[in-house]
Design goal:
7-stranded mixed sheet; 4-stranded antiparallel sheet; about 0% helix; about 50% strand; globular
Length: about 120
């Protein structure tokens, strides 16, 4: 079955950087678009970034454009989210997602931006 395992979250000061990773298994990774979502307490889960299967088309939420970069390594079955210039409002649980015949989610990794 599909497994998505996120890592790389943590506590960082405003203006800092983190890189999230999501290792995927159980499907043909190189054939599917991948996305990162985030959910803050009491808020809806929103898509942050998406990358197509070949890594050539990237889309971002307005709130993170110019600060976050999504990328993938199809040889490693891994998708990344590089997050720079982090703000307190970026604090959330971050989830990896792939839509196969169903919607698949990882367990999430917590990102906290605070001084």
């Amino acid at each position: 079955q599909v497994q998505l395992v996120e890592s790389g979250g943590g506590l960082v000061q405003p203006g800092g950087s983190l890189r999230l990773s999501c290792v995927a298994s159980g499907f043909t990774f190189s054939s599917y678009a991948m996305s990162w979502y985030r959910q803050a307490p009491g808020k809806e889960r929103d898509r942050v970034a998406r990358i197509n299967s070949g890594g050539t088309t990237l889309t971002y939420a307005d709130a993170v454009k110019g600060r976050f970069t999504i990328s993938r390594d199809n040889a490693k079955n891994t998708v990344y989210l590089q997050m720079n210039s982090l703000k307190p409002e970026d604090t959330a649980m971050y989830y990896c997602h792939v839509l196969t015949h169903i919607s698949n989610w990882g367990q999430g990794t917590q990102v906290t931006v605070s001084s």
